[in-house]
Each structure stands twice: as structure tokens, then as C-alpha cells.
């Protein structure tokens, strides 16, 4: 345990994510379009792609910063707040439409017209 070094990496830079990125590249560059004549054709294409990729591959340049993440989270939170308020407004409108009796106010008469049953058509 004396040789153990704990390294904290960003979530988006973990080794499973690196593998997912590689398989995404394989899918887009070697497997799409799916025009294989058969399994043997696919078996031949994958090693050929790997050999080519090893010659031309360059490290991925990470451009997503902590500042970018904070901005993204702020936009998501703002959108969720807007959606929450819109849902609350819809609920209020829905409740108002379900009122079984309507009370109309007529200021000329000086009071309210007695409740009447809502039109259920």
C-alpha cells in the first residue's frame, strides 16, 4: 500500500469513457455504413481499421472546462425552473376550468350574480 497513489480524474476523463470514445470512433469510421457481405467481411475490416487508426490517431484534446460545466449546469437549472413555473401555471388553469360553479361579478349591480352550474358541454 505504500506505492498506492490516489489520482482524482474528472468524470468525463475516466478510462471507461475513453473506451466508449474509442468504440464510438470504431462505429462511425469502420462499421457505418453497414455494407458487409457477411461476418468474414466485418472480421477483416475491424483489424484493418485498427492498424490504420494506430498510425493516424492523436490524443483527444479536452476542451470542456470547469467553467463550461458550471455554465451548462446554470442553463439546465434555469430551464428546469421555467418548466416548473409553466407546469404550475398549467395546473392552476386546469383547476380553474374544473370549477363546478361559476360566480360572476357585476359591478353595476353592486354585487355578484348567484352561482350557476358550469356548462358541461
Structure, described:
There is one protein chain. The protein is mostly helical and 121 residues long. It has one domain. It is built from three helices and two strands; from the N terminus they run αααββ. It has a two-stranded antiparallel ribbon with strand order 1-2. The longest helix has 32 residues, at 66-97. The chain is flat, with a radius of gyration of 31 Å.
Descriptive tags:
121 residues; mainly alpha; two-stranded antiparallel ribbon; 3 helices; 2 strands; 55% helix; 11% strand
Q: What is the helix tally?
A: 3
Extended strand count: 2
Number of spatially distinct domains: 1
General form: flat
Give the fraction of residues assigned to helices.
55-70%
In short:
This protein is mainly alpha-helical.
List the helices and strands and how they pair.
Blueprint: H1 15-31, H2 39-56, H3 66-97, E1 101-106, E2 111-117
Antiparallel strand pairs: 1-2
Helix pairs in contact: 1-2
